[in-house]
Amino acid sequence: MTEDSENLEDTAIDWLVLLHSGQATAAQRMAFQHWRQRSPAHARAADEAQRLWADLGQTRAARQHPQAARPAARGRRWWPALAASLLLALGSVIGWQQWPAWTSDYHTGVGQQQRLVLADGSRVILNSASALSVAFSAGQRRVILEQGEALFEPVADGQRPFVVQVRGQHLQGASGAFSVRRDGDRLTVVVREGQVQFTGDHAPVLLQADQRLQYQAGQPLLAQQQVDAASLTAWQRGKLIFNGRSLGEVIGELERYQHGRILVADRQLADLAISGVFDLNDPQGALRTLQQRYPMQITYLPWLALVH
Q: Are 90 and 303 spatial neighbours (Cβ–Cβ below 8 Å)?
C-alpha cells in the first residue's frame, strides 16, 4: 500500500478498509503495524481511523437516521474512505435483513409497494421492504407484520375480529384504515379512519382517527399524539409529506425507498427543519430538490449519498 505523506489520515483509512475486508494477508497486517510505528503522526492517524471505524459500527438502519460527525480539519477527503468502510459493513447485514421475506406470505423489495386483497375482502398495502403473513381461522382474521410497514383497511365482520400481530403486540380494527410500522423493537400505529384497540404487555389503549401511538419493547407506553394521519400515510399514494421535520428524519424516510445509504455529515445540518412534498418513487429527485431548496450539498458515491 502506498502513502501520501500529506494525507496520513486518508492512508490510515485505506489501511483500515483493507484490514476489515477479510482479504488482508498476515504480511499486510504486519506492514500496517510497521506503518503506524513510523512516527507519532502515523500513530495518531491510525488511532483516529480506528475511532472513525468504530463510529460507523454504531450507526443504525433507516428506520433511524445516521449522522456521522465530520472531522472539521479534514473536510471532504475522508468521505470516499467512509463510503468504502460503510460498504464493507453493508454486506454483512443484507442476509439477515432479507430473512423475513423468505419466510412470509407476501413481501416487497426496497422501493416497492404491493396491494393485496385478502380472502375476506380486507385490503392491505405493503410499503417498501416489508413482509406480511396471513393466518386466518374460523374465529379470527390474524395477519402478522414480520417487517416494515403496511396500511390495513379491514372489512367489518362481527364474528371474526381483524387483528394485526407484531411480535407480542396486537392491534384490532373492526373497519376503517390504519397503518402499522415495525422498526426493530419499535412499533408505530397511525389511525386514519375508525378505531384501533392496542393490546399486549401493557394496559389496553383505544386509538381514534388522526391519532398516532409509538411503542418500544421494555419502555413505558407513550401517550397518543394528535396527527395528520392522511399526511403520515401519504406513502400509499406515492408521496412523502413533511412539515417542519428535521433533515435527519427526512433522510431516514427517503433511505427506506432506495438501495444504499444516505448519510448526513453534520449534526447541526441534521437538525435543519424541512417542509415539502416529495415523490417517493424518485428518492434521487427528492435529494436534488432538497439541495436546490436548502443550504446543503450532496456528494454521490457508489451505494452512498453524503449530505453536507
A: yes
The residue among 78, 102, 126 that closes a domain is 102
The number of folded domains in the chain is: 3
Residue 3 included in any domain = no
Residue 107 within any structural domain of the chain: no
Distance CA 63, CA 181 (A): 10
> Residue 137: what are its φ and ψ, rounded to 5°?
-135, 180
Output DSSP code: residue 72.
T
pLDDT in tens, 256-296: 998 888 999 888 999 999 988 888 888 888 999 899 999 99
User: Cβ contacts of residue 264 below 8 Å, gap of 6+?
Assistant: 65, 66, 67, 68, 247, 248, 251, 270, 307, 308
Q: Strand ranges (DSSP E) for the chain?
A: 106-107, 114-117, 123-126, 131-136, 141-153, 162-166, 169-172, 177-183, 186-193, 196-200, 202-207, 211-216, 225-226, 239-246, 261-264, 273-279, 298-301, 304-307
102, 132, 147 - which closes a domain = 102
List, for residues 22-39, the tens digit of each pLDDT value.
566 888 888 888 888 889
In a domain, 108, yes or no: no
